[in-house]
Design brief:
Layout lengths: L11 H6 L4 E7 L5 H14 L4 E6 L5 H5 L14 H8 L19 H5 L1 E3 L2 E5 L13 H16 L3 E6 L8 H4 L4 E6 L3 H16 L5 E8 L2 H10 L4 E7 L2 H8 L9 H19 L8
Parallel strand pairs: 1-5, 1-6, 2-4, 2-5, 6-7, 7-8
Antiparallel strand pairs: 3-4
Amino acid sequence: MIKLSAFPEQSQLERCQNKISMKIAISGKGGVGKTLLAAFLSKIFAESGYSVIAIDADPDANLAATLGFPHPERITPISEMSDLIEERTGARPGKSVPYFRLNPKVDDIPERYAHRLDGIRLMRMGNVKPGGSGCYCPENALLKTLLAHLLVARDEVVILDMEAGIEHLGRGTAGAVDALIVVVEPGRRSIETAFSIKQLAAELGLKKVAVVGNKIRSQSDRDFLVSSLPDFVFLGFIPYDQAIVDADLANRPILEASSLVFSTVKDIYQALLLTKSAPNTKVKK
């Protein structure tokens, strides 16, 4: 069993970083390991003394289960809290109203509605209707305002686990993101998704895009990713470990299953701290 609290004494850099916030968004093709990375980083930041809010913004919500929250199926997404949405926007989801509040009060929601475990506060966002759907509904107004508050106003670490895109981000919030991490695995579809996400990020003015390679079985896997993504900065490469799969199948704590994966993500955590303190720092490929 890996004890996440068994860290060496914090460096001067880490003690300094504990006084500031960091906002991390994680995206990539479905199944590449976004949630696993988000969970490991949430645990490592929390155990390192940071105040952490983990946001599950993927409709296929698995972050709570990966973090080890009991009964994750009972966690209600914010987008489905009809009473809260009506209270804050003045309109109940699904009902036709002439107007509703576009900038509702949200600053108390993390304290009142987040679920807590081992120093991590977790919130499930639920679905956000895309901008081109022709409907800006009250639940969208609440989610967008809440996310803007989390990314812009909160002085803590916010880790956002997203689907294969960046629909939850807008021009007003993208600038607050310290790192958009695209998780990739050896495979063409994963590479194509990475380029698509980078293009979407550029359109929002988000330039702080980095890559983490996952499910790396050999040096050739690593070389494939580096050669396929020549203009990306790599934060690290997570090795494939069957122990993670076995733990998931046996319903054992996933974050305690692999010392190899844990050690690699700890290095990624350190790379993020360096990126925050020196924005122009590039991680070696």
